[in-house]
Amino acid sequence: MPGRPESAHDEAEALLPWYATGQLDTADRALVERHLESCAECQRQLHAERVLIDEFQTLSPEIDTSWARLRSRIGSTQRREPQWRQAVGEFWQLLNRPAVAALAAAQLAFVVLAATVALSLSRPSADHSPASACSARAPARPT
Ligand SMILES: [Zn+2]
Question: Which of 15, 105, 119, 140 is the most exposed, fewest CB within 10 Å of its CB?
Answer without folding.
Answer: 140
